[in-house]
Structure formats: C-alpha cells, structure tokens
Amino acid sequence: MAALLFAWWHVLVPWRLLAASGSDFANYHRAAHALLAGSSPYTVHAFDYPPLLAFLLAPLAPLSLAVAREAWFWLGEACLIAAAALTWESLRGRLGGWPAAALVATLWAVSGAIVEVQALGQVTPLLLLLLAAALRLEGARPAAAAAAIGGAAALKLWPALLLVAFLWRRQWRALAAGLATLLALVVVPLLWIRLTAPPPHLPTSAGYWMGTPAPLGISLPALALRLADLPLPTGPLPYSWRLGHDPAALVLPPGRAALSLAVAGAVLALGLGAIAWARRRGGGTAALETAALILLAVLASPIAWYHYQLVLLLPAAVAAGRLLEPGGGRRRGSGAATALLGVAAALAVATRLHQGLFGAYVARFGWTSEAPGALLVATSLVPWLNAAAFAALVALLARGHPGTAAGGGP
C-alpha cells in the first residue's frame, strides 16, 4: 500500500506539475549552460550555490530546459529510491527485513516534501541519498561516511555540521576524509572557473546566505528575522517578506544580517551542547547522533526552506527504528503498528504544515497582515515543532541502549 501511494503521490503528481510550477532547476540549468559556454556559472545571479552543482548539471546543459528538467526529475526519483534502500539496509539488522521495509516504505510514502522538491527540481534528493549513505556506512566504514557528508556539503553547505560527530568520536581519519572531500569538491571547481572563465568567480548573491525573513523559511534565524520586521496591523506584508525568496531583490541590512547569524550561532551552540550532554549521559548510537545533527542543521541554517523538510525522513526513520527495535520500547502486533503510524503521522504533518498553514492564510487574507495572530502561528509553528523534534531525538540519545556505544553503528 505504501509503495502504491509513493508511486501515485510522489511520482505521478509531481510529474504532472513540471510544466505548471516554477522551477528552481532553471537556475541550475542556466548556470551549467554558462559553464559550457566558457562563462562563470555565477553570471546567473540566482545561482548562489557552491560550484559543484553546475558541473554536475553540465551533461544536461545542451538539452532544452524542458527535456533537461524531465531527466533531472527521474534522477531525483532514483535518488529517493536509492536513499530508501540504504535506510532499509541501515535498519534491517536490528528490526528484521520486512519490519524495516514496512517502516521505510511508510515514511517515504507519507512525506509531504517530496512533491514540492520534485516539482521545483531541487537538488535535495541527491543530498538525501548522500546522507542516507553516511548513515549506512558510519558504523563499519566511517571514512566513507564522512566523505559522503563532505560531498553533500559541497552541494549545500549546511550538511558540513554532520562532520562534528567524527570529531566527537575522535575518528580523525574519517574527519580528515570528510574535510578533504569537501575542500576538493569546492576548491577544484572554483579554481577551474577562475582559470577558464571571466569574473565573477564567486556567487554575486552570497550575501543572501546571511538569511531571509521569507514566510516559507522554517529555520529559527528566519523566524527571528520575521519577528524583527513584523508587519503593521491590517497592512501589506513587509517588502522583505514578500521578496525574501529572491536573491536579486533582498539585501539584508547589516544589523539584520548580524541578528540572523547570532541566532544561528546560538542555536548551534545550544544544540551541540545538548547532543554532547546526551552522548555523555546515554552513549546512544551513532545514527541517533547523526539524525539529531541533521535536524539541528536545518533549525540553525539562515537559509532553510519548507521543502528542506525532505531530509527529516532520515531522523524519522532512525527514531522509529530506535523505538521499534528490541530493548527500545517495541511492542509486538498492534502496539508496533501504532508506534510506526504515530511516527509516520508526525512526519506527514511536519512536512506539510508550514506550506499548508501559510497557503491557507494567503488564500483567505492575501499577502497582508489582516489577521496578525493567524499569520504569526502560520509562520512560527513549524520551527518550534522542529525544535521539539530535536529535543525528542536528544532524549532518545540520552536514554542510550543496552550494549551499544556511540559510534557503534546504526
């Protein structure tokens, strides 16, 4: 049933939306086309990513945008399925093959972020695959796991936070492999651009990385920026809210950029401190540490859109596996099914709520502050729910597991 739901909701539905929706993929495609033409990919102002993505898209650049986007769509589907297979491999040793398959299939079927990610042509499915590979490998092959994280960070910077786990575990060779992979995949493409193309050699919209108060941002720095620029009662939403999605239109004042970075730093410090405390108290598994770091990275990132919730698939799978495994509170029969459905329901709500609430608000009140209380709830609830989910993961980590030490595998 879950596989059929996935095929309908996460393949056929986004496929039909390709022609109708706006496309983040268009920026990737233009950047790759510029690269093949001998120009810098950063001539595309909205391409504010590390350079590796433009090189990965180079084989699709000669194709028309429509054909390239279709090819990218199917590559994304392949990444989603491969990530599911790796997650199943991570869980089946503790849960058994069929229970692990039921868990993974259910979570992949109910995630609300897949439709948006695939319709927009985002790179997040590839990030999910690399992070799932890291979870699968970190117990037996930590250097390969760290290299997978380094590759993910070379596409979007925030996964670099996950390398902290190897520092905690004193896995120096693995940490070096992750950092070397990240540096190579960022520096080598940048050198190529500098040597073969005229300026600009760096993103012209790099200031956008400082944060945005756009209503569809789900991080705590984004929430802080919105609270610092609250709309006037019954008036239109502030300019920074309405155009916060556009790197060409939004320029944060220095004070607001400092606020965003300060909140990001505070969230990171508190979150890392909480995970370190839980590690000392409970000695939980490496997978729980990585899952908590994934959620912390999304919470603390100055730029974190609602469709980043796709990566919550991994923390949800790890937490559900921990609850269902022997010694983790699993009950047989209907009790296990109830636990699984509870995690699946929480994931379904978490990955749909932000867009759904703000979409419903705009449908009724437009881009105005006619209902300030409803607007505050619609744009604030999910960041705090994610913070609660992070706290739950830390609590699971603090509980530990009999006979399992940190770093001992999924």
- Percentage of residues in DSSP E strands: under 5%
Rough outline? globular
Largest sheet: none
Give the tally of β-strands: 0
Total count of helical runs of at least 4 residues: 18
| Share of helix, binned | 55-70%
Q: Mean pLDDT score, rounded?
A: 88
What class would the helix/strand composition place it in? mainly alpha
From N to C, what is the helix and strand string? HHHHHHHHHHHHHHHHHH
Distance between the termini: 27 Å
Q: Which ranges are low-confidence, i.e. pLDDT below 50, for 5 or more consecutive residues?
A: 402-410
Oligomer: single chain
Radius of gyration from the alpha-carbon trace, in angstroms: 21 Å
Helices and strands in order, then pairings?
Blueprint: H1 2-17, H2 25-36, H3 52-56, H4 65-95, H5 97-110, H6 113-120, H7 124-137, H8 142-153, H9 164-168, H10 172-196, H11 220-228, H12 239-242, H13 254-282, H14 286-300, H15 313-324, H16 334-350, H17 353-365, H18 372-399
